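Support reply, case 0932

Customer input (verbatim):
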Amino acid sequence: MYKTEVKGQTLIPFVRYQYYDGGKKHEKDARSYNVNDLEIGVEWQLNKNFELVADYTISNRRYEDFAKQDNKQTGSLLRLQAQLNF
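Our regenerated output:
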């Protein structure tokens, strides 16, 4: 994450990586998880009352239990957000 000021506006580009390899014992069959997520985005604060966010996520996940022995899921997500602050 980096914050910079450009002509009275704030620009915050960011990158986030998430990795998890383990289980959740409170779930049915104590599922095993493997999560690899990469998120790249930018937040643009035009002024203190209005901001825009663009975020692109690339995800590669696997979870398995007795019922689903090989359950791998991959995909991408684009999130666009406009926010009013008052």
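We compared this against your earlier run and they match. Two observations from our side: The mean pLDDT is 90. The chain is about 0% helix and 70% strand. Please reopen the case if you see a mismatch on your end.
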